Sequence to fold (332 residues):
Amino acid sequence: MFNDMKIKQVPEDFIVDEVIQLKLVKDRTNYVIFKLSKNNWDSFKVMNNLSKALNIKNKLIGYAGNKDKIAITSQYVSFYRIPKERIERIKMHDVRLEFVGYAHDRINLGDLDGNDFIITLRDLDKEVVIPKNIQLENYFGDQRFGNKANTHLVGKAIIKKDFKLACELLNITISNNDFIFELRKQPRRLLRFYISSYQAFIWNRLLSDFIKKQKNSFKISSNSGDLYLSKSSIENFKLPLISFDSELSDELKVILEEENISLKDFIIPQMPELTTETVYRNAFIDVKDISYEYSDDELNKNKLKIVIKFFLPKGCYATMLLSKLESYLNEN
Fold:
C-alpha cells in the first residue's frame, strides 16, 4: 500500500502546529509574543533573519522547538523588549508573524507540550486500515541530523576537541588558526544543537541495538544508520542522552568503543557552556487517537491520498511514525 508513496510532494502535505500553554498578560511587559508561521524555512535561518532584521542578538528571541523545513509550520516566539510595531513591520517571504500578546517570561526550548500534525501521503494504490493507537519507538528522526545528515558529526568533532574538523564541516572560514574563536561566533543555541545531535545519534544506537535482539523486529534505513522497529508491544523504559556523568552500561561501552569516545570527552573546558548533564528519554511513546481519511489524489492520476491527523509530545518525530506505518502496512 505505502510502497513508493510520496511524502511532502508539496509543503502543504506536512502541516505542524505547536501546542503550548502561554501565560499571557494584558499589560505591556518585557516580552512580546508572536505566532510565527513559515513555509519551507529552516527554523535556525528564520530566527537568524529575524535577529538581523531587528538588529538584535539571537538570544533575545525565544522559541520552544525547531520545526520541519519542508512543511507549513506554526510556533510561538518571544521577543525581549522589542516594540510589537517593529516586529509587525518585518517582511520575509513565506513567513507570517501575528501578534498574540505579552508575557512576563520568555519562551524557552522545551516549553511546548507537543505538536499537532496533518500529514498527506500520496500516490497510493489502495486503502488500508490504520490502527487508532500505536506504540512508537521514540527515535530521533532524520531532520535531527540536518539536511546534510552531518550535525552529529559536527557535535562529535567538538566533543573530541577537534575544533578544526568542526569548522571544516561547517564551512567556516578560519583566521589565525583560532578555531574556537570562530566556532564561538556561532549562536550558542546552534552549538548546543550539534552536541545534542551526537547525543541523539548514540541514543538511537542504544535503542536500535536493544530492539534488534527482540522477536518480531524489522529494519529501516535512516540518516543515523539502520534502525530496528518492533511489531510487538514492549514495556517502556528510559535511555540516557549521554554525557560525562552517565552510567556506563555494557551496551553503551560497546558503542563508545566503536565511536572512539569516552564519557569524559563530553566535558569541554574550551567551551564549558556546551557541557551538560545526562538526561533521560522514554524509549517508546503511545500515539493515540490517530484519525485519517482517503480521497482521490489530485496530484497523481488514478491514485489515492490519505490525510492523517495525530498529536505527538515534544521531542517526538512524525517521520518515525510514518516509517512504522509504511513498514508494517506494506504487508496488507
